[in-house]
Amino acid sequence: MGKVFSMESKNEVAKPLNIMLADDDLDDCSFFEKALAELSITTSLDIVNDGEQLMQFLYDDQNEIPHVLFLDINMPRKNGFECLAEIKANDKLKTLPVVMFSTSNSHDKINMLFKIGAHVYVHKPSGFEQLVQVIQHALPMAAENIFSNGQLKYILNA
Question: Which pTM was predicted?
Answer without folding.
Answer: 0.81
